[in-house]
Amino acid sequence: MGCLKGGVVANRVVPTPQYLRLAAHYGFRPDFCEAHDPQSKGIVENLVGYAKRDLVVPQAPFTDLVVANEQAAAWCVEVNAVVHSEICAVPAEQLVIERELLGPLPSLRASIGRVVIRKVDRLSCVRFGSARYSVPTRLIGTQVGLRTDDGRLLVIVTGTGETGEVVAEHILVAPGEASVLDAHYGGPRPAPRRAVRPKTVAEKEFCALGPIAEAFITGAAAAGNTRLGPELTELNTLHAAHGEQPFLDALGRAVAFGRWRAADVRSILAAGAGTADPSPAGDALVLELPVVPVRSLAAYAIEAITTGNAGGAR
What is the rounded CA–CA span in Å between residue 64 and residue 71? Predict the structure, then answer.
């Protein structure tokens, strides 16, 4: 995914314009993770790199999807028939040996009316039927009882002196899925905030202007301005030349109208106070107009002239 990154400015990733066009075409919004932040990263196994190095690179380009799938299947047979460097065994042969030790999986659903005991993990969830279900956070580290009833999963407080209170109720979900209720965590999870963290001298000087500068960096990065880093030096020069308040006003106008280039800010500063300041439409203006007397169209009709006048002319 690094090839989709056009640059990084103050910890904000600037995607390439081609990637933005792709996202706009398919209707999604790019959301890059932060450096040294495992919570914001996705999970990508090393198998992707293994397949790229050993399959895609040697045999590319693929001209047909069917041919590519056939070559991928042949590649899987090939790599599973050689000694793996990590387990020092042939995966296909090892699977035959381990299959004799495998037993049938237990039922993924408890019998109706039967209570099974689970321990609440650090995420305030219990695992049942290869799925996860949330419980109130006050029960983290304790054991609770689970019982199924008519397609529902009931979480019951167990233990000495407990009354068997039902503390959570979920609809049974498929294996691998999760049922999480915001009420168990005190409300909905806040949206992740990709903070602006300046590192270079130019970034620190620009971000010292306050929230409007951070909003400009965020918007410019989201718009794919890959020259945002070098342009910060030019923006700092404009700040020094025009003063803080005029520059902040111009920067705020650029953010309001989605203008993310240094040249745009320079044009706003050059226009000065002559720039228009549009505002949303207000309430309708209702006036009581004076009443004007009216008469019918018949009053404007040309009456016929008698035939005896002007030789019978009308």
Answer: 11
* Whether residue 282 has pLDDT greater than 70: yes
Q: Judge whether residue 304 has pLDDT over 60.
A: no
160 pLDDT band (50/70/90 cuts)? low
Binned at pLDDT 50, 70 and 90, residue 308 comes out as very low
- Looking up tokens 């640059």, which residue turns up? 7
Closest alpha carbon to 106 in 125, 130, 133:
130
pTM of this prediction exceeds 0.70? no
Nearest to 249 by CA among 263, 265, 261: 265
Query: What is the token pair recorded at 134?
Result: 């949330």
Residue type, 64: D
Query: Does residue 313 carry a pLDDT above 80?
Result: no
Rg, C-alpha atoms of the chain: 36
SS3 88: coil
The Cα–Cα gap between 153 and 151 comes to: 7
Helix (H, G, I), strand (E, B) or coil at 21: helix
CA 126 to chain centre: 27
Which residue do the tokens 């202007």 mark? 209
Contacts of 178 (CB under 8 A, 6+ apart): 125, 131, 132, 133, 134
Whose CA is closest to 139, among 165, 116, 114? 165
Q: Which amino acid appears at position 54 of this protein?
A: D
SS3 148: strand
Structure tokens at 28: 């999604």
Pairing of strands 178-179, 131-134: parallel
- The identity of residue 124, as a single letter, is S
Sheet architecture: strand order including 131-134 = 125-128, 131-134, 178-179
Q: What is the identity of the amino acid at 250?
A: A
Contact 103, 115 (CB under 8 A): no
Maximum Cα–Cα distance across the chain = 129
